[in-house]
């Protein structure tokens, strides 16, 4: 089971909150949600988290302003070649996840 910390989230209204949970539950690999006080966590199945599901998590994190660094532990569920695309500075997927970084940035090592 993979954990993703979601907080803090600011909803723009009741419909936005409903859309948040509808979208979260539709992401392949989603298993469950746990919220206590201000802390919110979603859990994903390692076996069911595909590269396309990971892209959906990036979109989700952009929309709800979730720190995309929190997605890093979920990369372990992806195939090696896909994981390297996200971790190599300057690659298309790295920049989508983290934004453009200087070539000597430690994340690519």
Quick take:
The protein is α+β, with helices and mostly antiparallel strands and 109 residues long. The protein has helices at residues 14-26, 51-63, 80-87, 92-98; strands at residues 2-5, 30-36, 39-44.
Account of the protein in words:
With 109 residues, the chain is of the alpha+beta class. The protein is 38% helix and 16% strand. It has 4 helices and 3 strands. A 3-stranded antiparallel beta sheet has the order 1-3-2, with helices on one face. A hairpin with a 2-residue loop joins strand 2 and strand 3 (39-44). The longest helix is centred in the N-terminal third of the chain and has 13 residues, at 14-26. The protein is globular and about 40 Å long.
Descriptors:
109 residues; 4 helices; alpha+beta; three-stranded antiparallel β-sheet
The gyration radius over C-alpha positions equals 14 Å
H-E string? EHEEHHH
Strand order of the largest sheet: 1-3-2
N-C termini distance: 26 Å
- The 3D shape can be described as globular
Strand content: 15-25%
**Structural class of the helix and strand makeup?**
alpha+beta
Number of helices: 4
Helix content: 25-40%
**Overall pLDDT confidence:** 86
The beta-strand count equals 3
Sheet bearing the most strands, described? 3 strands, antiparallel
Ranges where pLDDT stays below 50 over 5 or more residues in a row are none
